[in-house]
Amino acid sequence: MPIVIPKALPAYKILSEENIFVMGSVRAETQDIRPIELAIVNLMPTKIETETQLLRLISNSPLQVKVTLIKTDSYTPTHVSGEHLSRFYKNFDEVRERRFDGLIITGAPVETLEFEEVKYWKELTEIMDWAEKAVTSTLFICWGAQAGLYYHYGIKKHLLPKKLFGIYKNSAVNPYDPLLKGMDDVFNIPMSRHTEIDQAAAQAVPELEILARGKECGISILKSRDDKKIFLTGHSEYDRDTLYKEYTRDLDKGEPIEPPVNYFTERGDAVNVSWKSAANLIFYNWLNYYVYQVTPYDIES
């Protein structure tokens, strides 16, 4: 089944060329089917790349998924044109009276700031409060996961001695959870962050369940026991070259950065993609078991 996005969205052409079934809204409206309504709060500066990465993973299911992109009013990004934002994104005020089956809150390059110092923090907390009542299940990614854990459970983050940067091995703590269905005993997840959540505090919250962790990267996947919130501390959505772009960007800025671990081949002249199958399963399982199978048929009920 397709994902439903505007034909003019840059991701439409990219995904079509990859033989991913994308559909414009006009054609979708003629089908006698109730699509899964999914909203994405895209806080990443690389808006178009992040849109494409997430839509690619969302497309890997038999469900028809209609996507609404949401931007913040309290901060205007500088890495994407205003035309793109006004054409393809909605403000929170435009959707706050709606209900959605699923919501994704992305990462953001603000992790070294205190949460309350982030320009759009108040607006983001309003979105998280709204999601508690208006969304069946929310997927939080990287800084988005840290923000959700802090706001909902008071779990703080702290600065790491150096950036956690590369591809890290993880194992399931609960291999029978539906989110990890079909996963190998060991699976890889890209990480790119300067901070981590307080591991002991997360383990002490009875409303949370840890699903996966890695020796080097710590807790990588956890969820609320009511299944309404899934937290991913890494970036499973990343493309083949995303870490490379971040690496060269930091080098060009003169910032201290080491090559991403477990990312390049042994000869160092190519990228070893080893996380895509796990990423597809995580997003597929979330859409299937945590959204589609439990969301009401009448979404407004």
What order do the helices and strands come in, and which of them pair?
Blueprint: E1 3-4, H1 10-17, E2 22-23, H2 25-28, E3 36-41, H3 47-58, E4 65-71, H4 82-88, E5 89-91, H5 92-95, E6 100-105, H6 121-134, E7 135-141, H7 143-153, E8 157-172, E9 186-197, H8 199-203, E10 208-214, E11 218-224, E12 229-232, H9 242-253, H10 276-292
Parallel strand pairs: 1-2, 1-4, 3-4, 3-6, 4-5, 6-7, 7-12
Antiparallel strand pairs: 8-9, 8-10, 10-11, 11-12
Helix pairs in contact: 1-3
Characterise this structure.
This protein has a single domain, classed as 3-Layer(aba) Sandwich (Rossmann fold), CATH 3.40.50.880. The two termini are about 25 Å apart. About 0% of the residues have low confidence. The longest helix has 17 residues. Strands 1, 2, 3, 4, 5, 6, 7, 8, 9, 10, 11 and 12 form a twelve-stranded mixed sheet that branches. Helix 1 crosses helix 3. It has about 300 residues and is of the alpha/beta class.
Task: Please summarize what this structure is.
With 301 residues, the protein is an alpha/beta fold. It is built from ten helices and twelve strands. The longest helix has 17 residues, at 276-292.
SSE succession: EHEHEHEHEHEHEHEEHEEEHH
Task: Report the end-to-end length measured between terminal Cα atoms.
Answer: 25 Å
**C-alpha geometry:** globular
CATH class: Alpha Beta
What is the CATH topology assignment? Rossmann fold
Structural class estimated from helices and strands: alpha/beta
Ranges where pLDDT stays below 50 over 5 or more residues in a row are 26-32
Count, helices: 10
